[in-house]
Specification:
Strand order of the largest sheet: 1-2
CATH topology: Arp2/3 complex 21 kDa subunit ARPC3
Largest sheet: 2 strands, antiparallel
Number of domains: 1
Structural class: mainly alpha
CATH architecture: Orthogonal Bundle
Length: 202
């Protein structure tokens, strides 16, 4: 097991207060939650699918790597909880309402996969995958695969003919996979860069 970047930064702190360390972790979780909500607002609806283009997935993956499996998952559960409470944290949509109904709609599978994707990416980061670029790409690709799997399987319930996996792939995977992987290649450089900067401080 390797310490996450958050744990390493906490160790660099001059404070020995357990309460302060808990507050730092809670603040980091809240920060990733807030970033996920902000990323959702940078969205572009597409006329041929209910799934919009957003930057959320990249925040989920980087956040999971930063926080680790449990805290990364917690940040996304908090995000979904805020959405369920009716706060406007989900991507804007001309047809899908905010709130609990969004999780039951066509894009609900992507959203519900976020905590699992953050856990998977964080789990691999806890094994040192976030410290080098290539392994960071591997870790984030695993997390992105979780998001697409959950999203497409759920979307299949809403496409015609109902349950058709081919139609769900056409609406929720093929239009996004190349762009998301390009974004992932950029996002994968974040953690190794932060580790490099942290190493210079140790």
């Amino acid at each position: 097991m390797h310490p996450t970047l958050l744990a390493t930064m906490s160790r660099l702190s001059t404070s020995d207060s357990r309460t302060l360390r808990i507050a730092e972790r809670a603040g980091a979780v809240a920060f990733v939650t807030a970033l996920t909500a902000v990323a959702a607002q940078i969205s572009m609806p597409l006329p041929f699918t209910p799934v919009p283009l957003t930057f959320q997935a990249m925040v989920v993956l980087v956040g999971g790597a930063l926080l680790g499996s449990r805290l990364g998952m917690m940040s996304q559960l908090l995000y979904l909880g805020l959405g369920l409470a009716g706060l406007p944290v989900f991507a804007a949509s001309p047809t899908l309402a905010q709130g609990a109904a969004r999780l039951l709609g066509p894009t609900g599978g992507y959203l519900m996969a976020y905590p699992i994707a953050a856990f998977v990416t964080g789990f691999l980061a806890e094994r040192g995958f976030d410290r080098r670029y290539f392994t960071s790409v591997v870790a984030m690709t695993c997390g992105l695969a979780v998001i697409f799997t959950g999203g497409v399987l759920w979307l299949a319930r809403f496409v015609e003919p109902t349950g058709a996996l081919a139609s769900a792939l056409a609406a929720g995977f093929y239009p996004f996979v190349i762009e998301d992987f390009v974004k992932l290649l950029v996002a994968a450089g974040v953690m190794p860069s932060l580790w490099w900067l942290t190493g210079r401080r140790v």
